[in-house]
Specification:
The chain is mainly α. Helices cover 70% and strands 0% of the residues. The protein has ten helices and no strands. The longest helix is centred in the last third of the chain and has 18 residues. It is globular, with a radius of gyration of 19 Å. The mean pLDDT is 86.
Length: 150
């Protein structure tokens, strides 16, 4: 969840774990109302030191509340973004080392080949992916391929 990462940008390294743990109570809350209540607790504790964090959460609250409409299985996959970040880093690395491309097709071909190469190295699935995939199948119906559920 980029909101959490952005929240921690200005936090000192000594307090980073504690602030992150308190933010975790917000985004792991069961409902949007409960999350707002937890945000109030976070505000009371941290606004003296880091007032911009709670201000940022309140400013973006309308964009964050749809997140709480998903079941816990799907939400965990959403806020556990290590696999996505790893993929993005690998693709950026491939693009950065090439400099320029004669056209967009050349860049797309390079990214396609890079994805094939990266996919061969994948050994560990996204944490809780099976449970999230089952929830996606319930919510999205026929848009989730049945062979993915096996």
């Amino acid at each position: 969840m980029h909101q959490v990462r952005a929240s921690l940008n200005d936090v000192s390294w000594r307090q980073r774990k504690e602030v992150a743990a308190d933010l975790q109570t917000v985004y792991r809350a069961a409902t949007a109302d409960d999350a707002y209540f937890k945000l109030e607790g976070f505000t009371e504790k941290w606004d003296g030191t880091y007032p911009t964090i709670s201000q940022m959460w309140r400013r973006n609250w309308e964009h964050l509340t749809p997140f709480f409409g998903y079941p816990a299985d799907i939400r965990k996959v959403i806020y556990t973004t290590n696999a996505v970040e790893s993929l993005n880093m690998s693709l950026r690395k491939v693009i950065k080392t090439r400099g320029s491309f004669p056209n967009a097709d050349a860049a797309m071909k390079l990214l396609f080949l890079a994805l094939e190469h990266i996919a061969q190295k994948w050994t560990m699935p996204v944490q809780n992916w099976k449970a999230a995939l089952q929830r996606f199948a319930i919510l999205l119906g026929d848009r989730v391929p049945q062979d993915a559920l096996a």
